[in-house]
Specification:
The complex is a heterodimer of chains A (561) and B (159). With 561 residues, chain A is α/β, with parallel strands linked by helices. Helices cover 38% and strands 16% of the residues of chain A. Classes of the chains: A alpha/beta (561), B alpha+beta (159). The structure holds thiamine diphosphate and magnesium ion. The site of magnesium ion has 8 residues of chain A, from helix 18.
Chain lengths: 561, 159
C-alpha cells in the first residue's frame, strides 16, 4: 500500500467522514488516494477557509475537524486557522504536504518549516520521516487533539513519504509516556469545594467552554438548581446554561451584562468551571471578584492560578468533577434559603441594568436584527459570528439555550472566521439552521468561500450587519481616541447582494426595518446559500463596556436612561 | 531565584526547539542548558537553569508538562543535589608566568590540556562558584577564551 493510502486508512480508522482542503504539488499523491476513497472532501477557495471550516465543524459536532493543505503557501495559509483553534481549544488535525524528505532544509520549491512556524500554536505536531509511522502518528494525533484540553495537531508529510510503499498495519496501542490528562478530580478537593458551596451566601458560577467540551451541562444545571446559584458564562461558554433560565446572568466581562459583572464583583464565592480567567473576562485583576473565595475546575493544570489566585483548585474533567461535587452536596445538610437574599439582589440588578438599546426611527438597529433572528429561529439555530460589534451583539441579544449552538472566535478574535466556520457547522449539522452573523469588514476576509457554499449547496444564511465601519475599532476611537476615525471607515464597499448573486447565492439588501423579518424568513426557506445585507445604524456602540484596564463593575453605558 | 530543572524528554526530533521556545514565549531566560541521553536511549535529560524573578516557576513547569514529549520535570532542591559544570579556559601565559598559572590550576584540581608559547588551556570541573573563582584568579593574566558547559545535576542518595 502507498503511504497516501495509509493516510486515508488512518483517517477512516479515526472515524473521519469529511475533510476540507485544497491541493498542491506536495499533496497530489494524497489527493490521488482521496479520489478513490469515500471520504467527503470539500474543495475550498483559500486554505484559511479550510481551517475555519474544520474548526466550525468540530465546534458544532464535537468531532475532530480535519483540513488539508499543500506545502509552503498552502500550509502558511492555515496558520491563522490553527492559531484560532489553539486559542479556543478546538479539536483539529491539520495535514500539510512537505517538500521531498531529501530536499528538506535546502529552501526547496514551496518548502516552509511549518512545524517550526506553528510550534507555539499547536497542541502537538509531527513531521513524518518514515512511512511506517503513518498509522501510529495519525492515531496519536487524533487522540491528542480530542482528549484532555483539546487543540490542533499538525501532521507534515513529505511527498516521498506519501508515495512510499508500506506494509500497512493498523496502529497498535497508544503509548505516550508524557501525555496523561487528569480526568478524575481529587476527592478531597471536591469535598472542599462542596463545603464552600454549601457555606456560600453569595455564590456565582462562572462557566466557560470547558463545560461544553466535557458535556457537563446537566451537572452544571443540577448544581445551580440545587443550590440556587446564578450562572454567568464566557463567550465560549454561551449555551452551556440556558439563558431563559432565571438563574442565568448571561455573559460576563468587557461586554458582559451589568448584572453578571456586578454579581461577580460582589460574590463571596466564585466557582470557575472550564474557563481561564482571560483578561477580557476579568478586567483589572486586582479588583476582580475581590471579596470571593475562588474555586477553579479545569482540565488544564496550567490554567489554575495563572492569572487569579485560586483557593480551591480542582484539575479534572468538568463533568466528572461537577458530578462529584453534586453527589457531595446531596449528602450535606443544606439551607434552601441561604442564597435567597443574594438572588433578590441579582433580580434587582437585572431590573436596574437590563440589556437594552434605543430604537431609532428610520434606522435598522443592529441589535434588532439579532432579536429578529432569535425570534424567527426560536433560539434554536447555530449562530456563527465574525469578530467585532456584531459578534458582541450576537452574544448579548440572541438567547443562547443550547451548547454547540454558538460558534465564535474568542481567544484569537479572528475576523473572517464566521462564514467558513458556518459552512463547517452546516456540513456537520445539515438539519440545523445555520446563521453567520457577519461584519461588513470581517465577511470580506473570507468572502471567497461563497463559491464553496454554492458549489456544494451548503445553505448557510449570512446576515451582514453592514455599518460601513470596522465598527469595534471605530467604537474605541469614538470613546477613547477623540472620534478620530483613522482607517475604520470602509470605503468602496461592494454591493454584497450583487456579489452573492454573482457567486450563485441568494442576495438581498435590506434598508428598511419592516423588511428585516421577511428577509430572514425568505433566506432560511430558500434552502440555498444566502447573503442578507442589512444596512444598520452606522455609529452604534456595544454597551455595556468595561474600558480596558478597569474593574468589571466600572462599566460605561450600563444604565438604562 | 535560580532554579535547576531536570527534565526527562522523549528523544525525538524537535523536542529541544519546543522546550527552548516555550521558555522564551513565557518570558523566562534560560541561563544554561545541557542535554544528553540517559540510561534509556529513547529518553534524554535536559538540565535547565533558569531565573524565576518575575514569574513564578510553576507557570513554566506546568506549561512544560503540556508538551507531549516531556515526561517528567523535577525542580531540584539545591540542598539535595550535586551539580557540576565543566569549563575550558585559555589563558595567556608565557615562560615567566607558566608556573604560577599551573599552580593555580593545581589548587583547583584543574588539568592542563594544552600548552603553547603564549597560552595555557585549562580544564576545570566543579560548581558554578568554583569555576567563577578560578576564572577571576586567571583574569589578571588575561583570559583569551572561556567555554563552559551548562550545569548538570543529580539528586543525592539512592534514587
Ligand atoms: C484578522 C483581524 N484583523 C484585525 C482585527 C481587529 N479588529 C477587531 S474588530 C474589527 C472590526 C471588524 O469590523 P466588522 O467586521 O465590520 O465588524 P463590526 O465591528 O463593524 O460589527 C477589527 C478590524 C481582527 N480582530 N482580526
Ligand atoms: Mg462593520
Amino acid at each position: 500500500m502507498k503511504g497516501s493510502e495509509a493516510i486515508i486508512e488512518s483517517l477512516k480508522a479515526a472515524g473521519v467522514e469529511v475533510v476540507f482542503g485544497l491541493p498542491g504539488g506536495m499533496v497530489i499523491p494524497l489527493y490521488d488516494a482521496l479520489y478513490d476513497s469515500d471520504l467527503k472532501h470539500f474543495l475550498v477557495r483559500h486554505e484559511q477557509g479550510a481551517a475555519h471550516m474544520a474548526d466550525g465543524y468540530a465546534r458544532a459536532t464535537g468531532k475532530v475537524g480535519v483540513c488539508v493543505a499543500t506545502s509552503g503557501p498552502g500550509a502558511t495559509n492555515l496558520v491563522t486557522g490553527i492559531a484560532n483553534a489553539y486559542m479556543d481549544s478546538t479539536p483539529m488535525v491539520a495535514i500539510t504536504g512537505q517538500a521531498r524528505s531529501d530536499l528538506i532544509g535546502t529552501d526547496a520549491f514551496q518548502e516552509a518549516d511549518i512545524t517550526g512556524i506553528t510550534e507555539p500554536i499547536v497542541k502537538h505536531s509531527y513531521l513524518i520521516k518514515n512511512p511506517k509511522d503513518i498509522p501510529r502518528i495519525f492515531k496519536e494525533a487524533f487522540y491528542i487533539a480530542s482528549t484532555g484540553r483539546p487543540g490542533p495537531v499538525l501532521i507534515d508529510i513529505p511527498s516521498d513519504i506519501q508515495l512510499a510503499d508500506i506494509d500497512y498495519k493498523p496502529a497498535g496501542k497508544i503509548n505516550l509516556p508524557g501525555y496523561k490528562p487528569t480526568l478524575k478530580g481529587h476527592k478531597k478537593q471536591i469535598l472542599s469545594a462542596a463545603k464552600a458551596i454549601a457555606a456560600a451566601e453569595k455564590p456565582v458560577i462562572y462557566a466557560g467552554g470547558g463545560i461544553i467540551t466535557a458535556g457537563a451541562e446537566k451537572e452544571l444545571m443540577a448544581i445551580a438548581k440545587l443550590m440556587k446559584i446564578p450562572v454567568t458564562t464566557t463567550l465560549m461558554g454561551l449555551g452551556c446554561f440556558p439563558e431563559n433560565n432565571d438563574l442565568s446572568l448571561g455573559m460576563l466581562g468587557m461586554h458582559g451584562t451589568g448584572y453578571a459583572n456586578y454579581a461577580v464583583t460582589h460574590s463571596d464565592l466564585l466557582i470557575g468551571v472550564g474557563a481561564r480567567f482571560d483578561d477580557r473576562v476579568t478586567g483589572k485583576l486586582a479588583t476582580f471578584a475581590k471579596h470571593a473565595r475562588k474555586i477553579h475546575i479545569d482540565m488544564d493544570p496550567a490554567e489554575i492560578s495563572k492569572n487569579v489566585a485560586i483557593d480551591i483548585p480542582i484539575v479534572g474533567d468538568a463533568r466528572d468533577v461537577l458530578a462529584g461535587i453534586l453527589a457531595e452536596l446531596k449528602t450535606m445538610k443544606r439551607e434552601p434559603r441561604k442564597t435567597a437574599a443574594w438572588l433578590d439582589q441579582v433580580i434587582a440588578w437585572k431590573k436596574k441594568h437590563p440589556l437594552h438599546f434605543k430604537d431609532e426611527k428610520g434606522s435598522i438597529m443592529p441589535q434588532y436584527v439579532i432579536e429578529e433572528i432569535n425570534r424567527i429561529t426560536r433560539s434554536d439555530a447555530i449562530i456563527c459570528t465574525d469578530v467585532g460589534q456584531h459578534q458582541m451583539w450576537s452574544a448579548l441579544f440572541y438567547t443562547h439555550v443550547k451548547p454547540r449552538h454558538f460558534v465564535s472566535s474568542g481567544g484569537l478574535g479572528t475576523m473572517g472566521f464566521g462564514f467558513p466556520a458556518a459552512i463547517g457547522a452546516k456540513v456537520g449539522c445539515p438539519d440545523k439552521t445555520v446563521i453567520d452573523v457577519a461584519g461588513d469588514g470581517s465577511f470580506q476576509m473570507n468572502i471567497q468561500e461563497l463559491a464553496t457554499a454554492v458549489c456544494y449547496d451548503i445553505p448557510v444564511v449570512v446576515c451582514i450587519l453592514n455599518n460601513g465601519f470596522l465598527g469595534m475599532v471605530r467604537q474605541w476611537q469614538e470613546l477613547f481616541w477623540n472620534k478620530r476615525y483613522s482607517a475604520t471607515v470602509i470605503e468602496c464597499q461592494p454591493d454584497f447582494a450583487a456579489v452573492a448573486d454573482a457567486y450563485g447565492a441568494l442576495g438581498i439588501e435590506i434598508t428598511d426595518k419592516k423588511d428585516v423579518g421577511d428577509a430572514i424568513r425568505t433566506a432560511i426557506k430558500a434552502k440555498r446559500p444566502a447573503v442578507l445585507d442589512f444596512h444598520v445604524k452606522q455609529e452604534e456602540n456595544v454597551f455595556p463596556m468595561v474600558p480596558a484596564g478597569k474593574s468589571i463593575d466600572e462599566m460605561i453605558g450600563g444604565h438604562k436612561s | 531565584m535560580k532554579h535547576t530543572l531536570s527534565v526527562l524528554v522523549e528523544n525525538k526530533p524537535g523536542v529541544l526547539a519546543r522546550v527552548a521556545g516555550l521558555f522564551a514565549r513565557r518570558g523566562f531566560n534560560i541561563n544554561s542548558l545541557a542535554v544528553g541521553i540517559t540510561e534509556d536511549p529513547d529518553i534524554s535529560r535536559m538540565t535547565i537553569t533558569v531565573d524565576a524573578e518575575e514569574h513564578p516557576i510553576e507557570q513554566v513547569t506546568k506549561q512544560l508538562h503540556k508538551l507531549i514529549n516531556v515526561i517528567k520535570i523535577t525542580d531540584l532542591d539545591p540542598d539535595r543535589t550535586v551539580a557540576r559544570e565543566l569549563a575550558l579556559v585559555k589563558v595567556k601565559s608565557d615562560a615567566k608566568t607558566r608556573a604560577e598559572v599551573m599552580q593555580l590550576a593545581e589548587i583547583f584540581r584543574a588539568s592542563i590540556l594544552d600548552v603553547s608559547k603564549k597560552t595555557l588551556t585549562i580544564e576545570i570541573t566543579g560548581t558554578y562558584e568554583k569555576i567563577d573563582a578560578l576564572e577571576q584568579l586567571l583574569q589578571p593574566h588575561g583570559v583569551v577564551e572561556i567555554v563552559r558547559t551548562g550545569r548538570i545535576a543529580i539528586e543525592r542518595g539512592e534514587k
